Each structure stands twice: as structure tokens, then as C-alpha cells.
Amino acid sequence: MNVFRPLLLCAFILSAVSAQLARAGDFENGVSFYEDQNYPAAVAAFSKAAEQGNANAQFNLGLMYVNGEGVQRDYAKAMSLYQQAAQQDNVRAQVNLGRMYAKGLGVVQDYAKAMQWYKKAAEAGYADAQYSLGTMLASGIGTRQDFRQAKYYLQLAADQGNASAQYQLGLLYLKGNGVPQNSVEAYKWFSLAGEYDAAAMYRQYAEKKMSQAQIDEAKQLAAEWKPESGK
Known about the structure:
Layout: H1 4-35, H2 39-51, H3 55-67, H4 75-86, H5 91-103, H6 111-123, H7 127-139, H8 147-159, H9 163-175, H10 183-192, H11 197-207, H12 212-224
């Protein structure tokens, strides 16, 4: 019997734990430097953590390359970092990969790949991805227009409080795209998406076709609405 094997295993575990703590330390330092707007130091700290596989550091560093904070703007470098983080199921990186593919930043524009990454993050419950996927399906950009599928994803995002999705969902109900036309539901979602000037305009438009009882019902539904938990 090899009595040294358990000791070697313990040493390996301790080494792995130490490496994880070191990665976390570099990441936290990066966050602190970034909050202090010391971007070069943040880049250095995030780079150390990213090289050791910290997905959050890879995402943050990618974002800094996109924005040109502390480094020269480099979309290709950002794409590489997002890819590394996305492969570790970092949903924010998956969403940003989708955006990069959709806009053709640092990569050849590819709507199919954009939808692939949006869908992966959407299925993980990330509202921004659900909204982006829903709008692509509603508009038919890079895919066959599908209002029913669009409604499904927009509903998921709207239920989490995503104002953009709430606005788009209101449009679906107002026009009867993918759902039965319903002015009460449209009014409700436009009310919840209050930060959009267009939402107020469409709410007023819907109101002209509604009875006072319907308006009161929509207002009550909006007042009673509560967001679902998500990401």
C-alpha cells in the first residue's frame, strides 16, 4: 500500500485551492482598481486572473477592450476573451458574444451565431439575452420571422422587469402579432415600460380604443405586477 498517495492528493487539493484564491484576489483587485478609474492597473489585475481561467475577469477584460479603457480598443481581443468566458457558461459573455456577432465587431457578421449565443444565455434565464433573441425573431433579422417564438422570449424577459422587452411585448399585444390582440395587456406592458417615450405614445394610442373599464383594469394589472426572479 502506498501511504504517500493520500498526502500527495491533499497537496494537490491545497495547491488547487491556493490557485483559486489567487485568481479571486487578482479579480477583486481588478474590480477595486476599475472602481477607482485606475484602468491600466485594472487591466493588469484582470489579465492575471483571466490567464488563470477566471471567467468573470475574462468578461471584464473583454469589456475593457471593447470600450478602450486602459487599453487600445480591440474587438478581436475582446471576442477571444468573451469566447473563453462563454465556454465557462458566463452568461454575460454569451450575450456580448451574440451582440458582437450581430454587429460584426471583431468578427464577420453572423446572425446565426448571434442567435446561438443569445439562446444559450436565454435558456439560462438571462433577461437581456431573452430580449435580444425575442427582437430578432419578431423582426426577422437573420432568421425567419416568428412572432409566437418572439412572444415566448420577450415574455420571459418582461416578467423579469426588462423594460425593453415590456415595450416590445406591448407592441405584440397592440398589433396582435403572435398573440390575440389585447389592448388591456398592451396598455399594461406599455405602462410598465415607462422609461420609453414611445411606450407612453403607444399607451395613449391604445387608450383611445379602450373603454374606461378596460383602462382601469389595465392600470390595476400594472399596479399589481411584480417581477419574477431571474438574471
